[in-house]
Amino acid sequence: ELFLLNFVVDYLLLLAAGRLCGEVLRRGWLALGAAVGAAYAAAVFLPGMGFLLHPLCRGAAAVLALLAGCGGSRRLLRVGLVFCAVSAAFGGGIFALQLLGGGGLALRNGVLYSALDLRFILLSGAGCYALLTLVLGRTARHTAARRELAPVLLTLEGRRVALTALVD
């Protein structure tokens, strides 16, 4: 259950970060990145793996999951920062749901986990994904009606190309 839960959550986080950054997403690579993150989460609970709880190991696991899921991106730093922001927002959303639902958090092997039902967490994750994508996607969208986009005609050595430019 721990691997499955983290796989689904990591997949949704990578998917949300990629979509918010306008990346071309490849589901297989996202699944590989999610599997890396889920394997790390499960490995933390294995005997003798306490060193994985070190912040550098946690950061390295996040970077590996991001590289596996979105490594082909030309804007990997941007996707990484959005991934961190979406992860923090998702964590805060789950924490709020646990507080509202009366469920508590427990600490085991230095990792917070919940006694909440797996279906509840997965549905919450899907809901948080949908909400974050909707809210953040709308705020990042540019429109011609708000005079943020303008048609541009570029000419170089007799060649012309028509583009849409973002007004800065």
What is the topology?
Elements: H1 2-20, H2 27-43, H3 55-70, H4 76-101, E1 105-108, E2 111-114, H5 118-140, E3 149-156, E4 159-166
Antiparallel strand pairs: 1-2, 3-4
Helix pairs in contact: 1-2, 1-4, 1-5, 2-3, 3-4, 4-5
What general form does the structure show?
A: elongated
Main beta sheet = 2 strands, antiparallel
Element order: H for helix, E for strand: HHHHEEHEE
Secondary structural class: alpha+beta
- Rg, Cα atoms, Å: 20 Å
Which parts are unreliable, with pLDDT below 50 for 5 consecutive residues or more? none
Strand order of the largest sheet: 1-2
Number of helices: 5
Helix content: 55-70%
Number of strands: 4
Beta-sheet strand percentage? Answer: 5-15%
Description of the molecule:
There is one protein chain. This protein is of the alpha+beta class. The chain contains five helices and four strands, in the order H-H-H-H-E-E-H-E-E. It has helices at 2-20, 27-43, 55-70, 76-101, 118-140, and strands at 105-108, 111-114, 149-156, 159-166. The strands form two sheets. It has a two-stranded antiparallel ribbon. The chain has a two-stranded antiparallel sheet with strand order 3-4. A hairpin with a 2-residue loop joins strand 1 and strand 2 (111-114).
Structure in a nutshell:
The protein is of the alpha+beta class and 168 residues long. The protein is 60% helix and 14% strand.
Key terms for this structure?
single chain, 168 residues, alpha+beta
